[in-house]
Amino acid sequence: MAQQVIVIGGGVVGLTTAWWLLEAGYRVRVLERAAEPASGASHANGGQLSYRYVAPLADAGVPLKALHWLLQRDGPLRLRPEADPRQWRWLAQFLFRCNSASNARTTAMLLRLGEHSREAMGQLMTLIPPADFAWREPGKLVLYRSPALFDAAAARARADGARDGGLVRLLSPDETVTLEPALATLAPALAGAIYTGGEAVADCRAFCLSLADLLRSHPRYDGTLPGSAQGWRVAHGKVAALETSLGPLSADQFVLAAGIQSRDLAAGAGLRLPLYPLKGYSLTAPVRPGDNAPFISVTDFERKTLYARIGDQLRIAAMVDMVGERPAIDPRRVASLTRTARAAMPRAADYAHAVAWSGLRPATPDGAPIIGATPLPNLWLNVGHGALGFTFSCGSASLLAGVMRGQPTPFPLAGLGLR
């Protein structure tokens, strides 16, 4: 008889985990506290599937840049000091990793995970039509305003381009506008851009809803439970039951994939997860006939703002707000993001009717997710994906299902486990 698994979390990471576990032969139930899937960090995220642009935030020079961002009116970073040791512990670990060597190690690992995720998404798209979640593969443009930053990025891109079979192109400002006319207003401020082919955009929420439908059709899927996880019953060195608002739930295995909620739940099992909620914002603006929305996925490197056309809407996402677990939308940050978008692409969409969203992205200090085992032999983790949850979801789920089955992994997972 197949083992029963309870997956805690109905966002993109939890749902993909449920699917790959079903395909691995388990019976699966999903516990989700919200009324529908993808109600948290998966709901209106940036929509970029950046499998090759995976550089973590922690890098040499970032602490000084962060001080500059904090002084900017529309800067991408906000910090509200808390009387919470988890914030300070996370910041200390982050600063420790702000060096070139750590960044290079993590980037190399995330590139392997990104490629595996791209392949896994391709497998799933044989079952979920790409049109159902507005999937496109237009490539990605990363814009640089500073000549020094562009030169440094170009040097790295030349090496990456050789490895990626010519997918990477270095562009002057004029070449950038030729490739993406929506950037004409911004061109005078640019030093250059880097285009990477094969990068995609899609609607994460629509993907989750389609995947939830696919789960319900699977013969080993035992349904979604509408409740919240509250704690654990641990006996004889393993999880005996999950305490929930529905009462205790028993299973053979448990997978924690509940976003930032995973931090408190893990603590109840004696585990300290190095997670902090990096609050992000997005605007979803309708694209009208005659608007000049970008076709290619765009990231403004210095502004830390991305633009992705998803169907007939333009998604603009940005911000790293370290303000604790405060999900409420800050109107000042929405106004800031709107100003940034209007200045960069004034005729791209109907900003007056944009819908604002904010979400708490559970990030680790080094930017790498935590996938795999815990000291409790029947409790597993798939957490800490930060802003790349959609990008890494399919690959992380595939890896975890293999690890739980004791199967060889396609690449070493050192650096992706509990640390």
Automatic annotation (TrEMBL):
Domain of life, source organism: Bacteria
A Pfam match: DAO
Keywords: Oxidoreductase
GO terms for MF: D-amino-acid dehydrogenase activity
Oxidoreductase is among the record's keywords: yes
Domain FAD dependent oxidoreductase span(s) in chain numbering: 5-401
SUPFAM superfamilies registered for this protein in UniProt: FAD-linked reductases, C-terminal domain (SSF54373), FAD/NAD(P)-binding domain (SSF51905)
An example Gene Ontology biological process: D-alanine catabolic process
Cellular compartments per GO CC: cytoplasm; plasma membrane
InterPro entries documented for this protein: FAD-dep_OxRdtase, FAD/NAD-bd_sf
Family: Belongs to the DadA oxidoreductase family.
Full protein name: D-amino acid dehydrogenase
Species of origin: Rugamonas brunnea
